[in-house]
Design goal:
By secondary structure, the protein is mainly β. The protein contains 3 helices and 34 strands. Strands 22, 23, 24, 25, 26, 27, 28, 29, 32, 33 and 34 form an 11-stranded antiparallel β-sheet that branches. The protein has an 8-stranded antiparallel β-sheet with strand order 1-4-5-11-7-8-16-15, with no helix packed on it. The chain starts with a helix and ends with a strand.
Length: about 475
């Protein structure tokens, strides 16, 4: 790894005069014709099966916890049948809430039965429905799902048994949910949603094709205006109204329906980051649900940066010189760098005041770095290993990847068990060359061993850490 003083020397003689103009992202159209229904594994059992016998006269079958009930009318069954309710994991796209396997699987009823499921959590009336999985692993959402806000239940009528779960009809997000922009730069914000394919063999069941999966990041989101253009009237009497966009903080916000453009001020705002929000009224079958979506935007003063958040506090470091930028205050330097040596890739950040007072520093090393997500592995002080370390103040507090669990033993001693912290890093871009672009994120936990903790037999303290970097290699 190159030393900080060497990098500063190179900085003073290598500044260039090039500039960069920030422009808003284009609202690129999405080829929806290439989308296919989402396929997932079948849910796995999470509890015991409840069974009840029902004959030709019909009856009601309800799980002991009351989360699901099945009303079977007279004439639906031709003989006595053991009806089973098996709780399972919810594997549906945008699945939320409970999931059940109804048995005998494949049972076809002569008359429709009514399945009623409880909803809760972050599911909202009018924006939730019941979905079912087919034998090929795809999912179908029932457009005729009935909502009862008083009992907080969803109901559908069907003539067959399979896996039935609750899910979100649409899961709105403001994309990007978090972003970084240079002073005077712009960020394009979109409201994003969930796409259902328009063709279906059953008029009431719609194949589910999410434009982002249940746990996907912002990169998988797609602009909602495209979805609206795809005729969402298939949802029957569904309407979206974008009521109000708001900016909390400095800068300028220009709304336009389901999208808006934020322009950062000409200097770092206070507070930073700023927050953009939008109020949406979603109306389904005459019932309106009010939503507030949020996005946070961090404003920085250089194109190349390392942003580090430790226990909710953000530390900023900048890589000056590569794009013509220079430190705004030579007596208050927060400098980032990245390099590679013997297949060990390193990212560093150092904040120094008055050329001597250490405010904070951060170093992260990854062996054999490559595009994608990697777990960091530490060897507790050995060489040639992955490592992450944060120092706050002049060696006052050091957080690293060594988790030490101390257990008191008889007498004035304790047993130390050392484990490696859980840290991952994602390289979105990794150009393996001099001046190559390196971007990505990292997150996990680092541990602090305070002075005297070993004597008192106290275990290390956990600190949550996340980061984002946009740098070029300077080795």
């Amino acid at each position: 790894m190159k030393k900080l003083h060497f990098y500063l020397l190179a900085l003073t003689i290598g500044l260039t005069s090039c500039t960069k103009t920030d422009a808003p992202d284009a609202e690129a159209p999405i080829d929806l014709s290439a989308l296919t229904p989402e396929v997932t594994p079948k849910g796995t059992p999470t509890g015991s099966v409840y069974t009840q016998q029902v004959g030709t006269a019909g009856g009601k079958v309800q799980s002991p916890d009351g989360k699901i009930s099945i009303d079977i009318p007279a004439g639906a069954l031709s003989a006595n049948t053991t009806i089973g309710i098996q709780p399972i994991t919810n594997e549906a796209p945008l699945g939320a809430g409970d999931a059940f396997r109804l048995t005998p699987e494949g049972t076809v009823f002569a008359r429709p039965v009514t399945i009623t499921l409880k909803y809760g959590g972050d599911m909202k009336p009018g924006l939730s429905w019941i979905v079912t999985q087919k034998a090929d692993g795809t999912w179908m959402g029932d457009r005729n799902t009935q909502t009862d806000e008083t009992t907080q239940t969803l109901s559908v009528r069907t003539t067959h048994f399979s896996d039935w779960v609750t899910g979100k009809l649409i899961d709105f997000r403001l994309s990007p949910q978090s972003s970084v922009v240079k002073v005077k730069g712009q960020v394009q914000l979109y409201v994003n949603g969930f796409k259902k394919m328009e063709s279906a063999a059953d008029d009431d069941l719609v194949p589910l094709t999410p434009l982002y999966k249940k746990n996907a990041g912002n990169d998988d989101l797609a602009p909602l205006p495209v979805l609206l253009a795809e005729k969402m009237e298939q949802l029957k009497n569904y309407r979206l109204d974008f009521k109000e966009w708001r900016l909390s903080g400095q800068g300028n916000l220009k709304p336009a329906g389901s999208k808006a453009t934020y322009t950062a001020p000409d200097k770092i705002p206070s507070p930073n980051p700023v927050t953009v929000s939008v109020d949406i009224h979603a109306t389904n079958n005459g019932k309106t649900t009010k939503l507030i979506l949020l996005s946070t935007i961090k404003v920085v003063d250089a194109d190349l940066y390392l942003l580090l958040t430790v226990d909710g506090t953000t530390y900023e470091y900048y890589q000056y010189g590569f794009n013509g930028s220079i430190p705004p205050d030579p007596n208050n330097l927060a400098i980032a760098n990245c390099a590679i040596d013997d297949n060990m890739f390193s990212i560093t950040g150092t904040h120094v005041e008055n050329n001597s007072s250490m405010i904070s520093s951060f170093a992260l090393s990854v062996k054999n770095a490559a595009t994608g997500t990697m777990a960091l592995n530490c060897l507790h002080g050995g060489s040639g290993q992955d490592e992450a370390q944060f120092t706050l103040g002049a060696q006052q507090s050091v957080y690293d990847m060594n988790q030490i669990i101390r257990t008191p033993l008889p007498g004035p001693s304790c047993d130390d068990e050392i484990k490696c912290a859980n840290m991952t890093i994602t390289f979105t871009t990794h150009e393996n060359k001099w001046n190559g672009k390196v971007t990505g994120t990292f997150s996990g936990i680092l541990y602090e061993d305070k002075p005297g903790f070993s004597d008192e037999c106290k275990s290390t303290i956990a600190h949550n850490i996340t980061g984002e970097f946009n740098l070029v290699r300077a080795d």
